[in-house]
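Support case: user asked for a sample of complex input and structure output to validate their parser. Sending the pair below.
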Amino acid sequence: MNVARKVALILVLVVCAMSLTANWLAPAGYAKQFRDAPGATPSHQHLLGTDEIGRDRFARVLYGTRISLLLAPAAALVSTVLAALIGGLAGYLGGTWLRLARGFTDLFLSLPWLFLLITVRALLPLNVSPLLSVLITFLILGLLGWAASARVLSSSADALRNSDFVLQARASGLYGPRLFLVHVLPNLKPVLYAQFWISIPVFILSEANLGILGLGVAEPLPSWGSLLRELEGMVSFREEPWRLVPLLLLIVVMTSFQMLLSNEEVPA
Amino acid sequence: MIASRLFLFLFLSLLVCFSLLSVPALSQTGGELRFCLRSEPKTFDPLLVDDDSSLSIRYLTGGVLARVNRHTQDLEPELAESWKVSKDGKVITFKLRHNVAFSDGSQFSTEDVAFTMKRLMDPALHSSTGDAFRSGSGAVTTKIIAADQISIMFPAPIAGVERLFDQVAIMSAHSPKKEGAVLGPFMVADYKAGSTLLLRRNPNYWKKDSQGRRLPYLDSIRLYIQPNRDVEMLRFKRGELDLINVIDSDYFDRLAASSPGLPHNAGASLDSDFMWFNQAASAPIPEYKRAWFRSTNFRRAVSEAINRDDLSRVVFNSHAQPAVGPVSPANKFWFDSRLKPDPYRPDFAMQRLQTDGFHLQNGVLFDKSGNAVEFSIVTNAGSKPRERMAVMVQEDLGKIGMKVNVVTLDFPSLIERISQKFNYEAAMLGFRNVDLDPNGQMNIWLSSAENHAWNPQQKSPETAWEAEIDRLMQAQASAADPKKRKENFDRVQEIVAEQAPLIYLVNPNALSAVSTAVEGADPGILSPQTFWNADRLKLNATTRASR
């Protein structure tokens, strides 16, 4: 692991550690409204100032990071499993199954995902707690985000199906699920890992997009999406540079993920 | 010889003087006013106007019989010198101004008024402006009494009918230019869809200033179609735009900090933000929740547990007033000044709830059947002030043990839920009021109305107080005496305050921005806030020279 990757790993670990210890680092909490100090500048009481309705921005950044960093990998896991099931199996089975799966994947990819997300979000029950809304939002992202990974996995599985060692295994009398589990799936692991890591930043950004539209995580729970919304309409960054912290954090974490990912992509 | 030279000199001097004097008469020197429309105008037909941008264009180009003065709120003669409403309120007779011509030179006459009314009331046109004149079964007819007098007859009386003519731009009956021939101060000269709209001064505009100079002063108005408010503000700061008709409190404060003198705060506007609970019988919500929402004590308790002062101060940076009811204090005549906004008193709210059997247990409010009080408030995504208010209401109501979930939805989904499926518990929205007269709110207050938000389209009023509101609204709509109408509508406002079917939160202030380059601007609370006197606006010499 080179120095850059080590730095990336440390950064990700530090950010994760800070977000997990938010209760101690920011005892004010993410929801309490200091109504006498809306839009306050940084002080020893509020390290990053307060937002427009007086909530401690430092606490919101930490809790928002926790939510986005915990749930984006969970959504990535859901989408990767779905991609493995749909793409991997279709590639392994080949023929009509592969054509059907690819057609379905293409159809899914051609859907305007943002409108799809908005529609699905609008169909959900209204009376859900903020925590549940977070889970639902990321679950939707996970359930809708499998198509691109499935395409890659189907191609990889298709290539494996025709590889020499699989043919040899078949010739030895190995068929069906056992062949898939013993020979195909283990060889798909590097692709699966890569797709998993790629999906994390994608879901973080998707949630941020939904948040910018006001349709992400329900208030008062923060997320990177809702924190980035604060930058809307910001004219001068010089006057309130501390408001850029969520954006910088997003950039740092995404860059770190990409650097770590480039390590994972190298085939063993 | 000397005499002839002297004569020639005098002649030339007079000629020079005459030509110098006549320059302003031939072309105005007010310059070109520039500002933004936030959306594409949907129509240039003044009778089909239904959106803000088209409304602005109609205001600038259309000539009306009578105009509500945006400053005094009084109705003033325009194309009609005078008018008279019959005692039964069914007939209004206008005496028209003489020597008025359309922008294409054709003469204005009673035939144009008759033509406009006939077209306006054509059911096939589906004019929302025309809907305001539909008072009963039967047609609206016109009768030309003299060359300068015309009567308009309605099947049933319409209270305050004369004020409705503020919205009716008179069209030419004979001009081949149709809506291109106008009687207002400006006319459409050029339109590039999605980009700009150029209005040039109407050379035949009838109005003159006190010095006898023909209005408008401005040579033209250039309207940029720009939905992005950040870009609009940036261009205004650069001096590329001369005014912003409506700005929000964040922009207002930023502008005030960087360029004091440019932003204008005209005080409380006619607009209001409010929330309500779903009381519809067909709503797919649990019966016990419907019972809460139908309880006056529950609604009043919620109203009293909301800190409106904080909403005004925090969300609108103090550029809003706590709201009391359906009429803003900005509406000078119709506001019931005896009413005061509910003060923030959570202890009173708890007492009210206890009378209905609610009780607190470990900080959670339960009803008499033991159901924890939890509901959602839906509001439209993208409206920052409303989202912030919802979060503050969430915290305020949390203090009396109510668990509130704030849900932001895209606007079409929200409208579908609140007006078709009724699948929601509480909603928070705003009302953009452009009409001073309470008749403009009939579609909200009548229990049979579609916009009777909390329980629409009732076959007969489900509560005694709604029946009383129905009666009072109909009484005020059919009374000719303004005093009697006011009494009736005051009572409506009092019932609304007592029953809180709509819980009014704030009346945002009318905030705008006008460049110092614009002379004669006097921003007000009524739309259009900054250019209501566009025919008397002009740019200063420096700006004119630089453009």
